C-alpha cells in the first residue's frame, strides 16, 4: 500500500503555522529537521533552481529520520504557465515520487487556491490540514496572557472576530500604546480597545474592500428583525437549537421590498448584532462588477475564499440583482452576467451545513466552517429563479412601508432632533404628530426623514441662526417630498407592470 509522504498545512497569514511547526520541532527528538524557505530555491542561472531543490532532498535522505518543512510552498507549487515555474514544480513532484520512507514532508501555504492539484494527489502531500482563526473562547484564552481585567478580556475577545494570532498581538500592542498618554500607562480600558480596533483589521480582510455599515433605529419592522435574529444571529450565539431540531440554519436570507423600506438598514442591524460573534463583510454588489473579462468572477471567488478563511462569517450583499439577474437577457458577446451568475451559484453551493453534519458538529466546530449570506433586492422577480431555490436562499423576508403606528414613532424620533414650531397650528405635539401621520400614508421612514431635512435646510437658508422650523417651511417641504415620492412610485409601478 502506498503511504502519503507528507502534509500540506494551510491557513491565513499570521495564524500560527510557523509557530506550530517550531513547537513540533521541539517535540521531535532524533529527527533531522530542515526548514526550507521555498522562494529562496529560485536561482539566477538556468538549471540551478532544480539542482538546489534536488540537493535538499538528497541531503535529507542521508539521515536516519528526516523532516523537510517547506514554508510558503506555493512559491514552487503554484498553478503557472511560466516555464521556470513548471520546471521547478516538475522537479518537486519527481522528488516526492522517489522519496524514501524515512523522509517526511510538511508544506505550508496561505494561498491554498493557487496550489497545483498535482501536489495533493498520488500520495504526495495529500493530507491537507486547515488552521482556522481562533474562536471566541480561544481568543479569550490568548488575551489572558495580558495583564488586564476579565471584563476587558471578554470585551477584547468579542470585538476581534476573525483575528488570527498575529492580529491579536498587533491589537494588544496598539491598545497598550494608546495607554501611554494616560495617567496610568499600561492599564488597558474599553476606550483603548475601541481605539485599537480602528487601526487593526483581521489579516484575512486586509485586501477586501468593504462598505461601512451604520445601524440606525428602525420602525415597524420588528417581525422582520426578529426573523433575522432567529435565522442569522442565534445560530452564532448557540447552534444547539438547530441541532436539536435536526435542521441546519438558513444558508441565505433574502430581504425584499420597495426602495426606502429599510433593507439596507436591516443589513446594518445584522452587522451590529453579529459583531461580537462573527466576521461581517458588507459588499456593495455594483462594486464587484469589473470591465475586465473574468474580473468579476475572480472578485467573487476571492470574496468567498476570504469568507471561508474568516469563518464564522456573514456576507451582506446589497443590491444582489446586479450579480444575479434573470438569465437570457444578457446582450454582451461574452455572456458576462450569465457567467457571473454561474460563479455565484457555484460559490453558494460550496458552503453550508447539511442535516447530517449539523447533528455531528459541536458548536465550536460548527462556527469554524459557518458562512451565510444576507442579501437585498427591490423585488425577487429581478433575480434568476436558480438563486431562489432552497439550499441557496432558504428564507425570504419582505419589508413594507411603515404603518400608522410606525410612522408615528418615526416622527416622534425625528422631531426630537429637528424642532418644528407646531404651536402656531396645533395645541399639542401629539396633534401635530397625528396630522403628519395622516398626511404621510404610504411614505417610508427615509421619506419622512427627507421632509424634516428639507424643512431644516429651508429654515437655515432664511436664518442661519434659527433653531426651530416654522410650519410654513415644514408644509412646503412636505409638498415637495410628496411630489418626488409620487414620481418615484409612478416609475416603480411602470417597472412592475413591465415585469409581469
TrEMBL record:
Tell me which UniProt keywords the record has, alphabetically. ATP-binding, Cell cycle, Cell division, Nucleotide-binding
Please name the SUPFAM superfamilies in this protein's record.
Answer: P-loop containing nucleoside triphosphate hydrolases
The UniProt record lists the AAA+ ATPase domain at 3-135, 249-403
Gene Ontology cellular-component annotations:
cytoplasm
Which Pfam families does the record associate with it? AAA, AAA_lid_3
Q: Which SMART domains match?
A: AAA
Would you say which domain of life the source belongs to?
Eukaryota
UniProt-listed InterPro entries? AAA+_ATPase, AAA_ATPase_domain, AAA_lid_3, ATPase_AAA_core, P-loop_NTPase
Q: What is this protein called?
A: Cell division cycle protein 48
Keyword ATP-binding included in the entry's annotation:
yes
